[in-house]
Amino acid sequence: MAAKDSSEKAEIVEIASLDKGAPYGNLTALAQAAATEHAMTPIQAMRTYWRAYLWCLFVCMGALLWGYDSQIGGGLLSIPAFRQDFGYTDGGQAILAASWQSAFNSAGSVGGMFGGLSLGYFSDKLGRRGAVAVACVISIGGVLIQFFTPKHNNGMLLAGKLINGFALGMFVSCAGGYCAEVSPLPLRGISTAGVNLGLGRNMSNGVIKGTGNRTDVYAYRIPFAFQWIFPVLLLAGLPFAPESPWWLVRKGRNDDARKVLARLGGAAADVKLQVQQIQETIELEDSYAATATYLDCFKGVSLRRTIVAMMVFVLQQCSGVIFVLGYSTYFFELAGIADSSAFNLGVGLTAVGVVGNLCTFYTVNRFGRRFIFNWGMAACTVILMMIGFIWIDNTSGHAKWAISAFTIIYIFVFQTSIGPIGYVLFAEVSSAKLRSKTVGIGTWTNALCSMVVNIVLPYLINPDEANLGGYVGFIFGALSFIGTVWAWYFIPETKNRTVDELDLLYEKQVPARQFGTHKLHENDPGEL
């Protein structure tokens, strides 16, 4: 430990001696701040910055609505009253046409695409809190439309889901960016992983289980009404929530930034050093590019960062998460499992996912982002292939329950790896200057991929269409394998890297596989 401390002090001293005329200016404050953050353990950071962590969890409440809404889409298909009121009856069985299934399930994703992109404007103009407030108002209106939609008025229900989806895209994007900007380095991965916690999905399955046996309109209206909980609570707490200190400094409100940092870290926080770190990081990034537009996200080294922020969500969808999670209850029913058992499995599935995500709070700092993400991709590939092979003998009672078991194993693996780590990476790889726009593009990509999968899946699974059932595991297994290979070469390690260190690693064109081990030599004026 003494040797480590001596090394860090020597690094600071050598950096302090850099020529003022160096390309990146005087990096002394950056080095001091980096050494301080690297030396702090997650437990120490939690003791000092517990307020920051709690506020991150609060803002992530909006992201829970994304999970709730996405799970509702597949869960409502298992409610006979919903299929009857918005579908048709054939042979005594209520059926919702595959076209409307695709439309309802993809409407939120379409809205999310535009909501994610709009965050760059609202967040930069109104701040992170202001953007969340706008999303809350839009969400309340979208849910209102869904709740009062009359029977067989499918277009009105579709409009409500589209409007609410716009708010969902803003919620997810703002939650990731806010957590990355408010949390200190040791808590950054833990807080951003909370965006994917999955409590919304678990709540959704629990509500559907409680109302699914009703025969009136409230069998599905009650699940819609529960969505009001999230934006109402957020609006009530936003006046007390701290604004992002990074946004405040960019707006020239340094005194307000100091007050926020003092509030988040208490007396133990070195507020002066933190503000100076933010200022010098902003100056460092301004030396790379003077503008901050969406087009800048696709220029120079920012393109590489944007691709990673997009691809983590592409790979999530390639790994078949909507197939396994979004259609879990309906899939269990198609496999021949009784309705009551299917509901119980659906609730248990999301509960297992929450436990898996909680495990990530420890593993994300212990093993790093790259290792966990790559391991998760490989494991999901194997599980999807196993589901496909078992489906060959799907008439067997043992095979049905084996598929159910692999489904539960899959969601545990996904929620300990690809799911939460994707949200960590897309918030961390972006520069501070372009963060609101990069995370918006990432959310847009997530929504786009979700929309495509939601459109295609009903035609692959439904009995009146391709009726592939578990064979869909082969399709996503193949896509997941390709994604595993891509991730090995291009997913970087962002663990223990400050914002300015990541800036320098990307500027130096360091390969993604070397991010975790690359030494930023003090004798190079462009490195820490």
Give a written overview of the molecule.
This protein is an all-alpha fold and 528 residues long. The chain has a single domain, classed as MFS general substrate transporter like domains (Growth Hormone, Chain: A). The chain contains 25 helices and two strands. The two termini are 21 Å apart. The N terminus and C terminus are likely disordered. Belongs to the major facilitator superfamily. Sugar transporter (TC 2.A.1.1) family.
CATH architecture: Up-down Bundle
What share of the residues lie within helices?
Answer: over 70%
Morphology call: globular
Main β-sheet description: 2 strands, antiparallel
**Strand arrangement, major sheet:** 1-2
Round the mean pLDDT to the nearest integer and report it. 82
Order of helices and strands: HHHHHHEEHHHHHHHHHHHHHHHHHHH
How far apart are the termini?
A: 21 Å
SS field, number of helical segments: 25
CATH superfamily, by name, is MFS general substrate transporter like domains
pLDDT < 50 stretches: 1-27, 522-528
User: What would you call the structural class?
Assistant: mainly alpha
CATH class placement? Mainly Alpha
Compute the number of strand runs: 2
Q: How many structural domains can be distinguished in the coordinates? A: 1
How much strand content do the residues show? under 5%
| CA radius of gyration | 24 Å
In the CATH hierarchy, the third-tier topology is known as: Growth Hormone, Chain: A
Keywords: Membrane, Transmembrane, Transmembrane helix, Transport
Catalytic activity: myo-inositol(out) + H(+)(out) = myo-inositol(in) + H(+)(in)
GO molecular function, one term: carbohydrate:proton symporter activity
InterPro entries: MFS_dom, MFS_sugar_transport-like, MFS_Sugar_Transporters, MFS_trans_sf, Sugar/inositol_transpt, Sugar_transporter_CS
